[in-house]
Specification:
Radius of gyration: 18 Å
CATH topology of the largest domain: Beta-carbonic Anhydrase, Chain A
Order of helices and strands: HHEHEHEHHHHEEE
Shape: globular
Number of helices: 8
Number of strands: 6
Strand content: 15-25%
Structural class: alpha/beta
CATH class of the largest domain: Alpha Beta
CATH superfamily of the largest domain: Carbonic anhydrase
Distance between the termini: 40 Å
Strand order of the largest sheet: 2-1-3-4-5-6
Length: 202
């Protein structure tokens, strides 16, 4: 907490005064350009990796960047509905990441029974993807398999997203991203090529 309090003081004394007018303008409402759905992992900072400003991104986060099936009354579906129907979002990014603890946990569920809520979350929303990947990619080594799992988990969540009533018949661009901490690289899924490729920014 000491680090956070120190950072708060630094923000209030050095950053806020310089951008006071910008922050004051935020009072009138939000008009984010992108809905960014990602993992709760503390190593991901959507604003940092995209260099976005406050007000640019509407963010939904949970363990494993999960988009639950429609009709469950989830906070995720409520937030997505609000972003699309009320804020007029046109782009949605579902961003997974390498070294995802939730995806890794799905490959060792027996060790998670002391965490019943986390166990149920992973079992319900990630295990079907794990089973599918193991069936179709059984010849890969553990490292390659983990990468495929992370990618396929993102794609599986997007399939759930497409079934949301708030998404149907909307002109939306949906992007599947995977972030790599150790290189700062982000890979985006190309539907025409059927694979993830590096975003170069060019």
């Amino acid at each position: 907490m000491k680090k956070l309090i120190k950072g708060l003081h630094q923000f209030q004394t050095t950053v806020f005064p310089i951008k006071k007018d910008f922050f004051h303008a935020l009072v009138s409402g939000q008009k984010p350009e992108v809905l960014f759905i990602t993992c709760s992992d503390s190593r991901i900072n959507p604003h940092l990796i995209t260099m976005a400003e406050p007000g640019d991104l509407f963010i939904v986060r949970n363990a494993g960047n999960i988009i639950p099936p429609t009709g469950l009354g989830s906070s995720e579906e409520a937030s997505i509905e609000f972003a699309v129907s009320e804020l007029g979002i046109k782009d949605i990014i579902v961003c997974g990441h390498f070294h995802c603890g939730a995806v890794q946990a799905a490959t060792m569920l027996d060790k998670l029974k002391q965490l019943p809520q986390f166990y149920n979350w992973i079992h319900k929303h990630i295990m079907p993807t794990v089973d599918l990947v193991k069936k179709n990619y059984h010849d890969l080594d553990p490292s390659e398999l983990q990468t495929i799992l992370i990618q396929e988990n993102v794609l599986a969540q997007i399939e759930n997203l497409k079934l949301y009533p708030s998404i149907a018949n909307k002109k939306l661009a949906i992007h599947a991203w995977v972030y790599k901490f150790e290189t700062g690289e982000i890979f985006s899924y190309n539907a025409h090529e059927g694979q993830f490729g590096l975003i170069t920014g060019k």
